[in-house]
Amino acid sequence: MEIDLTGKNALVCGSTKGIGFAIAKQFALLGANVTLLSRNGGILERVVKDLDTSKGQVHHFLVADFMKPQEVKAAVTSKINEHYLYQILVNNSGGPSPGALVNAREEEFLQAFNAHLLSSHYLVQNVVDGMKQSGYGRIINIISTSVKIPLKGLGVSNTIRGAVGNWSKTLANELGPMGITVNNILPGATATDRLNQIIEGKAMKQNESINEVQDEMLAEIPLNRFAKPEEIAYAAAFLASPFAAYITGINVPVDGGRTGNL
Fold it and tell me: Model pTM?
């Protein structure tokens, strides 16, 4: 089985680093034309040059802040108005700051809702017509294993991720008759800047060393290691491919077995 995304246009969000960039890089290697979407134009201008073009791919980037849904909507609308159709959308953005739910402030919920749900919703609304016209549609949401079991110390994230999970399932039901699939990838602890921030925060709060916190986290993972960003990208590549045409409305944990249920 060889995945080939040649001729497909993919919009990958949060794609200047970590999981988002790994997905963009993998899609490009498989032949897709990739549009990166993130808030830092300077970094986007640099990293877009790192994407493979050996099959004649043409890559683009859009600048928008996910905390400002209308800005995200305007950025993608500008591309759609150029009659550019997307067959693949990957919704991905950095998670909310850690902290106990009981101490969460109103603005933390609003920021997370804007970044993770409203921005994703506007993106879907903008690309879905192109998917219908193309006869091919794959929507992939990078969420969290907290959709299945809330994670300690990530109160706002647990709350918003659950909302995104149900939004995704509803979309899968609505868009299924059109042949458009909607699925969620739930990464476990992945070697990214965000994981480093979480580890550092726990170490400070628990008055432990970074190594001690890492060892505690690894002890919860049957495979006894953190994921590499490209391992999340492999799952995204499969879900974006023709081979996943009959898979929709599901959560795919990529967590080394950490999640305590099926």
Answer: 0.95
